[in-house]
Specification:
This protein has 395 residues and is α/β, with parallel strands linked by helices. Helix content is 25%, strand content 22%. It has helices spanning 83-88, 110-123, 147-155, 175-183, 206-212, 229-238, 252-264, 287-298, 303-308, 312-318, 347-352; strands at residues 2-6, 25-29, 32-37, 49-52, 57-60, 62-67, 74-75, 80-81, 92-97, 133-135, 138-140, 160-163, 187-191, 216-218, 243-247, 271-274, 333-337, 358-364, 367-370, 384-386. The chain folds into two domains: 2-59 and 326-392, Urease, subunit C, domain 1 (Roll), CATH 2.30.40.10; 62-285, TIM Barrel (Alpha-Beta Barrel). It is globular, with a radius of gyration of 21 Å. It has a six-stranded parallel β-sheet, sandwiched between helices. The protein has a five-stranded mixed β-sheet with strand order 3-2-1-4-20, with no helix packed on it. Strands 5-17-18-19 form a four-stranded antiparallel β-sheet. Strand 14 (216-218), helix 6 (229-238) and strand 15 (243-247) form a beta-alpha-beta unit. The protein contains eleven helices and 20 strands. Helix 5 packs parallel to helix 6 and helix 6 (229-238) packs parallel to helix 7 (252-264). Bound molecules: zinc ion. Residues 66, 68, 98, 223, 276, 279 line the site of zinc ion (ZN).
Length: 395
C-alpha cells in the first residue's frame, strides 16, 4: 500500500532542531515513510492513494505518553466507550499506558501485577482502536518485585512501569524496585506531586524523584496537584536524566513554569506533552492539541516546539520508531490547518494564538484513517484524496 502526500505547506519533522521537510511531498509504503521530495517528482500513477493537502501543514502523529488504557476501547473511570478512536480525531496516533490502574478490582500482588501488564501488552499487539498504536502493559510497581520478575515480563514484551500506586512505606522506598526495573529494560514513570484522587497516595516530592531516579516524571506539573516552584526548579536542574512530562489534566501554571525553566537551562529535549486522561478530569479527545495551544499561546514554547514535545521528544525518551518525519520511521502523519474562522492562516499560527487547528487527515501505519475529523473545526485548506485508476498504475 503506497500513499503519496503532495503539496505540503509547512511541516514539523519532530527533530529537536525544529526543522521542516526538505521538500513538499512524502510517500509511505508498507507502513513506513519511504520517500521525501518534491510534488513535481511524484508519479501519481505509482501510488494507490494521492493525498493533496493544498498547502496545509504536516506533522508526525501526536504521541500521548500518559493515557490510562485498560482493555479494549473502554475506560471504566469515565464509563466511556470508543475514547481512543475519538483521540485519533484529535491527531493522536499513539498512546503510552501510564499503567492499567483503572481496571476494576486490579490485583496488587506480585503475580497479579505481572499478569495484568503482560495481558494488557498482548491485547494491543494487533488491536488498533481507530488505527492508533496503544503501547500498553505498564506494570504497577509493588514491594516484592525482583530482577527476575522484571526479566521475566520484559522477555514477554513488557517495557513500561508505573511507580506511585504500590504499597510502599514511603516514596523513597520505590528506589530499589525502580532500579531493578530499569536494569531489565523497563521505562519507569513516577507519579509526581499530590495524590490524584481521594484515598490515593501522599505527595511525591522532588526529593523522592531525585532519589528514585525514574525515566519520566509523570505529570511533573501535577496530576492535578503540582510541586512548588522551588521543587520545579530543582527537578529541571538536578534531575537531568528524568524526562519532564507536562499534562493537560495538570496544573497549567506549573506546566508553563517548567517550559520557562527548560528553555532557560537548555533542557527542552526533556519536555514531553501528554494528557493524563482518562482521569477525574475526563476523556479529552483534543487534549494534545489543547495542551500545545495553551502552552504556545500562554507560555514561552512556540507551537513548533509544542509539536516536537508531543512527537520527536517522546520518541527519543521512549525509543519509538514513530514521532518524526524521516525515511524509515512509522507512517503516522497528521495534516493540520488553521480552522475556518480563525484569524490565523496556518496550523502553527493558529496554535500560537490559542486556536485548535482543524485536522484534515490522519494516517497511521501507512493507512488513511480519516479525512474529516469529527472533533475539530473544518480546516481552511481542504484535503483531497484520489485513487488513480488501476489501468494507470505503473508497476
Ligand atoms: Zn495518570
Amino acid at each position: 500500500m503506497s500513499i503519496a502526500i503532495i503539496n505540503i505547506g509547512d511541516s514539523v519533522l519532530g527533530t529537536r532542531n525544529g526543522a521542516s521537510l526538505g521538500g513538499d511531498a512524502i510517500v509511505t509504503d508498507g507502513g513506513v515513510i519511504s520517500w521525501i521530495g518534491d510534488t513535481s517528482q511524484v508519479n501519481p500513477g505509482a501510488h494507490e492513494e494521492i493525498i493533496d493537502v493544498a498547502g496545509a501543514t504536516v506533522i508526525p502523529g501526536l504521541i500521548d505518553s500518559h493515557v490510562h488504557s485498560t482493555f479494549g476501547d473502554y475506560t471504566p473511570r469515565q464509563n466511556t466507550i470508543g475514547f481512543l478512536e475519538s483521540y485519533v480525531h484529535g491527531g493522536t496516533t499513539s498512546v503510552i499506558s501510564a499503567s492499567e490502574v483503572h481496571v476494576p478490582g486490579r490485583p496488587t500482588d506480585v503475580a497479579g501485577v505481572k499478569a495484568l501488564a503482560v495481558a494488557a501488552n498482548r491485547c494491543y499487539q494487533t488491536y488498533r482502536p481507530g488505527g492508533m498504536r496503544v503501547h500498553a502493559g505498564s506494570i504497577i510497581l509493588e514491594p516484592g518485585l525482583t530482577d527476575a520478575d522484571f526479566r521475566d515480563i520484559n522477555d514477554q514484551g513488557v517495557w513500561l512501569a508505573k511507580a506511585g500506586f504500590g504499597a510502599f512505606q514511603s516514596p523513597e522506598g520505590y528506589a530499589p524496585v525502580v532500579a531493578a526495573a530499569k536494569r531489565n529494560g523497563i521505562k519507569v514513570m513516577f507519579h509526581t506531586g499530590g495524590g490524584s484522587i481521594a484515598g490515593s497516595l501522599s505527595k511525591i516530592t522532588v526529593d523522592a524523584l531525585l532519589e528514585v531516579r525514574p525515566n519520566i516524571s509523570g505529570h511533573c506539573n501535577g496530576g492535578p496537584t503540582a510541586l512548588s516552584r522551588d521543587e520545579n526548579r530543582r527537578l529541571v536542574t538536578d534531575g537531568l536524566d528524568i524526562a519532564l512530562q507536562l499534562v493537560h489534566a495538570g496544573n497549567l501554571r506549573s506546566a508553563i513554569h517548567y517550559a520557562e525553566l527548560a528553555l532557560e537551562h537548555d533542557q527542552f529535549h526533556r519536555i514531553l506533552i501528554a494528557t493524563d486522561t482518562p482521569t477525574g478530569t475526563g476523556v479529552i479527545p483534543l487534549g494534545m492539541l489543547r495542551q500545545i495551544a495553551e502552552m504556545a499561546s500562554l507560555g514561552p514554547l512556540t507551537a513548533r516546539q509544542g509539536i516536537i514535545a508531543s512527537t520527536g521528544n517522546v520518541a527519543d525518551v521512549y525509543d519509538l520508531n514513530a514521532g518524526k518525519l524521516e525515511i524509515g520511521r512509522d507512517a503516522d502523519l497528521v495534516v493540520l490547518d488553521a480552522p475556518v474562522g480563525s484569524s490565523a492562516d496556518d496550523a502553527l499560527s493558529a496554535l500560537d494564538i490559542g486556536d485548535i487547528p482543524g485536522v484534515g487527515c490522519v494516517i497511521t501505519d501507512g493507512v488513511v484513517r480519516l479525512t474529516k475529523s469529527r472533533n475539530t473545526p473544518t480546516p481552511k485548506r481542504p484535503v483531497t484524496v484520489t485513487h488513480p485508476a488501476p489501468e494507470t498504475v505503473i508497476v
